[in-house]
Amino acid sequence: MTAPSLHDPTHVPTLAEFGHAIALTEKPGTASFHAEFATLALARTSAMTHDTSTHDTSPANYGDENVLHDYEAHINPALSHLMRFVGYDSVEIEAHGCLVRDSRGRELLDCLGGYGTMSVGYSHPHVVATVREQLERQAFSSRVLFSAAQTRLAKKLAQITPGELQYTFFCNSGAEAAEAAIKLARLKTGRTHFVSAIGSFHGKTMGALSISGRERYKTPFAPLVPGCVQVPFGDAAALEGAVETNTAAVILEPVQGEGGIIVPPDGYLKAAREICDRNGALLVFDEVQTGLGRTGKMFGCDWEGVAPDMMMLAKALSGACVPIGAVVGTPSVWEVWNDNPLIHSTTFGGNPLACAAGYAAIEVVENENLVARSRQQGEKLMAAMRAAQEKYPGFIKEVRGRGLMIGVEFAHDDVAGLVIAGLVGRNIMAAYTLNNPTVIRFEPPLVITDEQIAWAATAFDESVASTAEMLQGIEL
Q1: Mind listing the pLDDT tens digit for each residue in 196-223?
Q2: Which residues is 108 bridged to in the sheet?
Q3: Which residue, among 415, 426, 414, has the nearest Cα to 389 in the 3D structure?
Q4: Contact 136, 165 (CB under 8 A)
Q5: Which residues of 446-461 are buried (b: 16+ CB within 10 A; e: fewer)?
Q6: What is the value of pTM for the model shown?
Q7: Rounded to the nearest 5°, which phi and psi values hold at 353?
Q8: 8 A C-beta contact, residue 251 and residue 286
Q9: What domains appear along the chain, each with residue ranges and CATH number?
Q10: 244-299: per-residue pLDDT in tens?
């Protein structure tokens, strides 16, 4: 086979060509391959710098070719090429439940779920109807009158969250929730240091990035917020050694998401609670990805029965419909608002449309018993993944997770990339975890059916088999 020309901006490599390109480097992931990709991305960016196209962008006439062209010209040309390289080269048209229909008429099974966002499924009828009704009455708040939608959701969150969590600050995303939690912890304690975990992910704004745990995304923006340290996740002794008299808060994910779907040892969250209490630090759980049933409990911290001083929420709280973020805190933490009730605020946070979606999402989780369903369906999907692991032990190192938050770790990140490409070719949407590219995540909507699990399992087995055949003779 002749090597494909990665410098041809019109060429979208097939799975076989992708595998051949990797094989040419003698070992997957070597510098020459990645340098080739970076050169191509730069060339494509430069080619789009002076875009003067005038094609029709009306919905009826905005075809794939023009959408991809305009994405590269006006959004992110390097990301466009990466997506196309793996096989994501069509345009999404509509989505319901676990299925996404694209511009070519294909139905794709979403096993990525918007990185844990689509818990109730796409376009859930109850969420859509609730949001439509709110939209027709009032989409956005005056900001000077009280909002029933916001208050109703805050009360509901107080009812379903653990411990003494009672008050909610609403924002628009998980990163904004992290920023709010950092500021509130500083205000409450008068301290400035934070301890979080290596491999963690809390967002990409400056404060959220400072407490996140992968240097690849942090170093280009240094110096970040000072006083932020990371310790190995799941290591209670390391956590205790890092928390000191100036620690404002310990911030942890109950199960690490972007770190590779890492489940901590039993007792780790309880130990974190005890360490914080002994040192006068706050304990903050980032439940942006684990919250609202994803792990088979309403919240990830429920697995150990541990209540934090603050909890961060987003993703699934949106009902897969309207972006929202939230920080839920205890009465003790909320004392910080007394001196200045506007010490931290947001224009769009807590708007009626988002809060209506959030309340409806919780109703769906409760009324359709999605917490238990996540646990049941997750066991079935993990069993299928483990069956594949037994067949291909040299490629699959581990299958792990809780509920429908599942990670499959491969022997090398390029193996994971090839398996993802194989899944895409079989109409399965999947991706790796951001801070650990050797791990493919499976976080489908909690409404996934037995038939859809069988579809995903078959596609996964076939994708691993084709990758193993393609890489035969290559040392990983």
Answers
A1: 999 999 999 999 999 999 999 999 999 9
A2: 100
A3: 415
A4: no
A5: bbbeeebbebbbebbb
A6: 0.90
A7: -65, -45
A8: yes
A9: 1-89 (no CATH), 93-120+368-476 (3.90.1150.10), 125-366 (3.40.640.10)
A10: 999 999 999 999 999 999 999 999 999 999 999 999 999 999 999 999 999 999 99
